[in-house]
Amino acid sequence: MTADFIHVFEPPAEPGGPILLLLHGTGGNEHDLVPVAGMLLPGAGVLSPRGQVLERGMPRFFRRLAEGVFDIEDLKLRTAELADFVTASAAQHHFSMRDVTAVGFSNGANIAAALLLLRPEVLGAAVLFRAMVPLTPDALPRLGATPVLISNGKMDPLVSAEETERLAALLRSAGADATVSWQNSGHDLTERDVITAREWLAQRQAR
Ligand code: MLT
Crossing angle for the helix pair 107-118 and 72-93, nearest 10 degrees? Predict the structure, then answer.
């Protein structure tokens, strides 16, 4: 039985067009990144679920034990539920999972990275804003040159440069085509992140 997520779905402007899987940060919801999607890839469809874990009333995609310390069993379970939701949505709305690009911020970026590591078949690409290493999988997935953009902040008090490079190395060791882009910022999403991701997505669409 597929977990049902409260979500927003908007079809792409053209049938068979790209779909952005929008994954909000802690305390966000399914509406947060919809305006950003319009800036990133105009005409793309949108699938935007709300995380099902509540931390003091704030939605998240998986439990954490402390800041940056994740409940790995819960993360694995929630990643599987989200992957099943994307699979079911693809069947319902007739899109291909190869056309799905995850766009995640913070907690949403972390579950997007977990999808890449545990259920790579549900994503064609990923844009990770302020991502950490969510977990180290028992076996490396085969990411077959899946394009991944990691856009992190140089002054982020939550995610170090070392952790960012560790995530990129982990994804590359699984075959992903991972690019790291550094912003002059902290943990918050900036205009520069949006511009960087928009250009990166446009280049991929042009191929
Ligand atoms: C957050 O606040 O969401 C964290 O920095 C990332 C996470 O807990 O996944």
Answer: 80
Our CA dihedral for 92, 94, 99, 102, rounded to 10 degrees, sits at -20
> Considering the entire predicted model, what is its pTM?
0.97
Atom of ligand 1 lying closest to residue 110 CA: 9
Within a 10 A sphere around the Cβ of 195, how many other Cβ atoms?
13
Residue among 61, 58, 62 at smallest CA distance from 48: 61
- CA dist 189 and 86 (Å) reads 25
Q: Which residues pair with 47 in a beta bridge?
A: 9, 21
Q: Token match 């597929």: residue?
A: 2
Positions marked active-site: 106, 156, 187
Query: What value does the mean pLDDT take over residues 63-78?
Result: 97
Asked whether the beta carbons of 115 and 142 are under 8 A apart, the reply is no
Which DSSP helix (H) or strand (E) runs through 20? strand 19-23
Which atom, in ligand 1's list, is nearest to the CA of 60? 3
The Cα 160–Cα 30 span in angstroms is: 27
The mean pLDDT of the chain is: 97
Question: By C-alpha distance, which of 108, 1, 134, 106 is closest to 47?
Answer: 108
Average pLDDT over residues 59-84: 97
